[in-house]
Amino acid sequence: MEQPATTTAMSQEMQDCVEACMSCHALCEETMSSCLQRGGQAQMRIMRALMDCSEMTRLCADMMMRRSPMAAEMCALCARACEMCAEACMAMPDDPQMKRCAEACRRCAATCRAMAGAMM
């Protein structure tokens, strides 16, 4: 006898949000590495924002994938962390890595805000 499915498939919007979170997480990690290689130029405010954003995006994606009942609140917090990180990265607007990271953060923030609204 076939077992009934206990979870429904993720919506396209949720899949897009998970992908945006994972992409943002990867770019934050790459940007942290770039900052560390550069040495003294990396400001602590930028590093903290990158660390917060990296962790929040990974956790947010995890929570959505396991259909956590707290995913909507996590998406809202994640959007906030992404916005703060994008703003911090733009403190160095001439750096192409920082610019790419800020763009990924803004994309992620937009999808997380939409997800938070859809799930609440």
Task: Reconstruct the topology from this structure.
Blueprint (H helix, E strand, L loop, with lengths): L11 H27 L5 H22 L5 H19 L6 H24 L1
Helix pairs in contact: 1-2, 1-4, 2-3, 3-4
Characterise this structure.
- The protein has 120 residues and is mainly α.
- Helix content is 77%, strand content 0%.
- Helix 2 packs antiparallel against helix 3 and helix 3 runs antiparallel to helix 4.
- The N and C termini lie far apart (36 Å).
- The N terminus is likely disordered.
Features:
single chain, 120 residues, mainly alpha, elongated, disordered N terminus
Task: Explain briefly what this protein structure is.
This protein has 4 helices and no strands.
What is the mean predicted local confidence, pLDDT?
Answer: 90
Question: How would you classify the helix and strand content by structural class?
Answer: mainly alpha
Specify the overall morphology.
Answer: elongated
Number of strands: 0
Gyration radius from CA atoms, angstroms: 16 Å
Count helical runs: 4
Strand content: under 5%
Spans where pLDDT lies below 50 across 5 or more residues: 1-6
Q: What is the H-and-E element order?
A: HHHH
Overall helicity: over 70%
